Amino acid sequence: MRRYIFYVCFFTTLLFRVSAQSLQWQQVAPGVWKGTAGQPESYDLLKASGSTPATEALQKMGNSP
Predict the structure, then answer these.
(1) pLDDT at 25 (0 to 100)
(2) In the predicted model, what is the mean pLDDT of the chain?
(3) In whole angstroms, what is the distance from residue 35 CA to residue 27 CA?
(4) What DSSP string describes the chain?
(5) What is the spatial distance between Cα 8 and Cα 57, in angstroms, rounded to a whole number?
(6) Is this prediction's pTM over 0.70?
């Protein structure tokens, strides 16, 4: 019985293999990177908040090694 359960689980995992989405990395500001998976939604909390990054301060810091 254990062998039967093992084979059912094994073949089920072969049939339903899941592959992860790859991340698309984009530099937003010096030292700040954004990773996107799939198709981003048009509405997000950062846009809704209306906040803006302190780009002058980030440029003074420069890129991280």
Answers:
(1) 92
(2) 81
(3) 9
(4) -HHHHHHHHHHHHHHT---PPPEEEEEEETTEEEEEESS--S--HHHHHT----HHHHHHH----
(5) 58
(6) no
